[in-house]
Amino acid sequence: MKSVLIVTYRDNILNQSLSKIKGKGLSIKKLENVLLEHKTNITTHLMKDLSVNVT
User: Fold this and answer.
1) Is residue 20 part of a domain?
2) What are the Porphobilinogen deaminase N-terminal domain coordinates in residue numbering (predicted)?
3) In terms of CB atoms within 10 Å, which of 10, 12, 34, 48 comes out highest?
């Protein structure tokens, strides 16, 4: 399986609290678009959501 790093809008504005930022889905909107454009087969918002075996 190939890994692709996707930087979201939220990743670029870490110095602001979420309560001050307008809009919903700041972390997942880009992930949804990548899936809809068939650029990946699966995405995850947090790496802790995936089980990984280190070899």
Assistant:
1) yes
2) 4-53
3) 10
Radius of gyration of the chain (CA): 13
Q: SS3 sequence, 3-32?
A: CCCCCCCHHHCCCCCHHHCCCCCCCCHHHH
How many residues would you count in the chain? 55
The answer to whether position 55 is within a domain reads no
pTM of the full structure: 0.56
Instruction: Give per-residue pLDDT as tens, 33-45.
Output: 889 999 888 887 7
Residue-range definition of the domain harbouring residue 18: 10-49
8 φ, ψ (degrees, to nearest 5): -95, 170
Any domain includes 3 = no
